[in-house]
Design a protein that fits this description.
By secondary structure, the protein is an alpha/beta fold. Helix content is 34%, strand content 22%. It has 26 helices and 32 strands. It is globular, with a radius of gyration of 28 Å. The chain starts with a helix and ends with a helix.
């Protein structure tokens, strides 16, 4: 830092009139280290090969080995290759050429896999279209890409509609008797086709800020390089992602390049994590690719079922920032043969960095870094002027090297904006990611989030501007903004704020009707993960003194911001239980019997959690197909009652009154955590931290009383774990014990933020005494008269991620 200051002063002396932000403060040796030494990643790889040729190599090595499995069917490498080749020759006869997008719109099946391979072998670039997407979205993509050829099944043809299909030659892969059965089973010759590794392998569309999705053009060579670092083992790999998510390409070809078996699963199994868990166990899956939210929920479901998964070897996660949650640590402690690999990338660069986490989860930090650049990849951290930032400083990630996409299909202006010529390496191109990062002292990269409004929800990258554009097409909307908010459960949701036109009528009355209308409008135009959970009506968007949107002033959504139906209270035990579960999951205080799960912001992952909780509360296994078919609470409850009646007369499980004068038994999960604590009493691995920054005047006395009432309400928070003759038992502290809170006043400290950070670190390093308790504690830090920071730490043995959401809602209600 001293050297930087000296360099800065020399720059000022040399030209006192230049802006300070433009002065280069890097010494020559640091510049060399940042631009060259950290980017010494050159390595040999098969840069002249196409991605499907990796598959063909394994066909030559082991044609009888199993290549793909779907339910009771399987194809060997030789059989899959022959099927794909016959179809590829047919596509060539239909006019497919290198770089030509070929649309593929099928449900999961062997035909889907054959279709992808055939397009690549014919020289085309596959353009995936998800049959589950709204028809309007699919038509928008087709209109932009203008594919001349479509591979589909009945579901795909129906999803696209007759108008979109009319301008394309359709090849129906579900046809029993195919026109290409007599075509040769041999590999098409890339040389004859004029196909090279510089041609496109796929065009995948992602969300666009202008309201128009953009198609990312990815070459064969870039994909081959990104796959070079993914294992070298022949592993049985699950195909979890949809084709329109670029991770699916990793799943297919990381498996096939080493001779593994790719295992497809039904969409129903993919959505229901208890079934997914059983599927992974039954099919002996060895490699999984899951975004963080899905991975964490997979671990939560495993924690409840404790199904052993001895086959697991590699779990890759990407798409959103990894958090080393307690449940993830426990999962990997129970599976010592499995490794967690944190990847970083995007559709425009595939994977460019990865970090293999320690085999011992106790060493994992709360937010693991993303490692170092993979082979033939260059990473630069630059400031707003395109200059490198000092080592350890925060900058925007720019990516160069072999893995960078060609650009955006039919979008030359956007391509020129995001893909720029490298000022550091002649002939190289850099992709501006919009992500922020920094180098850690050991040279690893830390990902710090977005530099713009782009967000990631459930692993999908979303431009809120596209949602805003669609919202503003509605006659009732004059202005809109869409932001992502994270609740206490860690679930990130989209919230839309709208200023209405006169056509919408008064802002008094049925705001839930407005939410319902806008949700229906977006649902017909966007994928479900891009439809906001809530719609908040504002008289005007809040602005800062500089006239910019004041995001901090946007209010949290109230109940009326959701698409609530006219309220009728739940009737009967099943409806009441269901309403309580929905309220907890969706963050809506009052759920009526006419409310719709998905219109209140529900999605597939929440549906999985709902099914799991319902099984515990009512004693019935609810399939996701039943929920999707009957998403209204009263209808779903009636369906559950019907299921209960078929399995014989049952009552809802009763809660037996148990004396608190005697020690209580530990649950299985508590036994496990207690045992781990005995191995290392100073461990802080199972702390669950929460930090709240409270702005405005705070009634500290009322805050304390609210916390004490919360502590008194929940016996779990008052539990301690005492061992008698080596056997642990639960004892419950009295309701008036009070939640321990320590107050700190940093108002006079010039280094208040640094002191706060020190306090956070110290709190995180302080272990709990499970026998004495309490196993929840807080610090209230006074930063100024109108700003406080509240630190709350709990031990995982008395709380979990779901409980945190309940705690925050109750604390908010008690304080109000």
């Amino acid at each position: 830092m001293t050297q930087h200051l000296q360099t800065l002063l020399r720059g000022v002396m040399a030209d006192a009139g230049q802006p300070v932000g433009r002065i280069d403060i890097l010494a020559a040796d640091e510049r060399t280290y940042l631009l060259e030494d950290l980017n010494q990643t050159a390595a040999l790889y098969s840069f002249e090969r196409c991605i499907h040729e990796l598959f063909e190599t394994q066909v030559q090595k082991a044609p009888e080995a199993v290549a793909v499995v779907y339910e009771k069917e399987s194809l060997s490498y030789g059989e899959l290759n022959a099927r794909a080749n016959r179809l590829a020759h047919h596509l060539i006869e239909l006019g497919v050429k290198p770089d030509q997008p070929v649309a593929i719109c099928l449900e999961r099946s062997l035909a889907m896999v054959v279709g992808v391979l055939a397009i690549l072998k014919a020289g085309g670039a596959y353009l995936p279209l998800d049959p589950a997407y709204p028809s309007a979205r699919l038509r928008q993509i087709v209109g932009d890409a203008e594919p001349k050829l479509l591979l589909c099944d009945v579901a795909g043809r129906t999803a696209l509609g007759a108008e979109a299909v009319a301008d394309m030659t359709v090849v129906d892969l579900a046809t029993a008797t195919t026109a290409w059965d007599e075509r040769p089973p041999s590999n098409p010759d890339p040389g004859t086709l004029g196909l090279t590794s510089r041609h496109l392998a796929y065009v995948i569309y992602t969300s666009g800020s202008t309201g128009i999705p953009k198609g990312v053009e990815m070459s064969h060579g870039a994909l081959v390089n990104s796959l070079a670092g993914i294992g070298t083992s022949k592993l049985r790999t699950l195909q979890f992602a949809t084709l329109n998510f670029d991770v699916s390409c990793q799943e297919l070809f990381s498996c096939w390049k080493d001779g593994g078996a790719l295992v497809l699963l039904r969409e129903e199994t993919r959505r229901r994590f208890s079934d997914l868990l059983e599927f992974v166990e039954r099919e002996a899956i060895e490699r999984l690719f899951l975004p963080f939210v899905a991975l964490n929920h997979f671990a939560e479901v495993w924690s409840a079922q404790r199904l052993p998964l001895p086959s697991l070897r590699e779990l890759y996660t990407a798409g959103e920032r990894l958090q080393a949650t307690p449940v993830l640590k426990v999962f990997f402690e129970a599976h010592p043969n499995a490794r967690l690999i944190n990847q970083y990338g995007s559709t425009e660069i595939s994977v460019i960095a990865e970090h293999h986490l320690s085999a011992d989860p106790s060493y994992w930090p709360q937010l693991p870094h993303i490692g170092r650049p993979i082979a033939n990849t260059r990473v630069y951290l630059l400031d707003g002027h395109g200059a490198p930032v000092p080592f350890g400083a925060v900058g925007e990630l720019y990516i160069g090297g072999a893995g960078v996409a060609r650009g955006y299909l039919n979008r030359p202006e956007l391509t020129a904006e995001r893909f720029i010529a490298s000022p550091f390496v002649d002939g190289d191109r850099l992709y501006r990611t919009g992500d922020l990062g920094r180098y850690l002292p050991d040279g690893n990269l830390e990902f710090l989030g977005r530099n713009d409004d782009q967000v990631k929800i459930r692993g999908y990258r979303i431009e809120p501007g596209e949602i805003v554009a669609r919202l503003c097409e509605h006659a009732w909307v004059r202005e809109a903004v869409v932001v992502a908010r994270q609740n206490g459960d860690g679930d990130k949701r989209l919230i839309a704020y709208v200023v209405c036109a006169p056509e919408a009528g008064s802002d008094e009355g049925d705001e839930g009707g407005l939410a319902g209308a806008l949700r229906a409008h977006l649902s017909s135009r966007l994928p479900d993960y891009m439809v906001p959970s809530a719609f908040v009506r504002l008289a005007a968007l809040p602005l800062t003194v500089n006239g910019k949107l004041d995001r901090n002033a946007l209010p949290p959504p109230a109940d009326q911001a959701y698409a609530l139906a006219a309220y009728q209270s739940p009737q009967g035990a099943v409806e009441t239980a269901l309403a309580r579960i929905w309220a907890e999951l969706l963050g809506v205080e009052r759920i009526g019997r006419n409310d719709h799960f998905f219109e209140l912001g529900g999605h597939s992952l929440l549906a999985v959690q709902m099914s799991s909780r319902l099984s515990q509360a009512v004693g019935v296994e609810l399939s996701l197909s039943r929920l999707f078919a009957r998403p209204v609470l009263a209808d779903l409850a009636a369906s559950i009652v019907e299921l209960l009646s078929r399995s014989g007369p049952q009552e809802l499980p009763s809660i037996a009154v148990v004396s608190r004068h005697e020690p209580l038994m530990l649950s299985f999960a508590q036994q496990r955590l207690w045992f781990l604590a005995q191995l290392n009493e100073a461990s802080t691995n199972y702390h669950i931290p929460l930090t709240l920054r409270l702005r405005g005047l705070l009634d500290r006395s009322a805050w304390r009383r609210s916390l004490d009432r919360l502590f008194a309400r929940h016996e779990a928070l008052r539990s301690v774990f005492v061992a008698t003759q080596g056997k642990p038992r639960v004892e419950v502290l009295p309701p008036n014990a009070g939640l321990p809170i320590i107050e700190h006043d940093l108002r006079e400290r010039s280094d208040a933020e640094a002191a706060l950070l020190d306090l956070c670190h110290e709190e995180g390093r302080t272990p709990f005494d499970l026998a004495r308790g309490p196993l929840i504690r807080g610090h209230l830090v006074r930063m100024s008269n109108e700003e406080h920071v509240f630190l709350l730490t709990q031990h995982h043995i008395v709380s979990d991620g779901w409980s945190m959401g309940v705690l925050l809602r109750e604390l908010s209600q008690l304080y109000r």
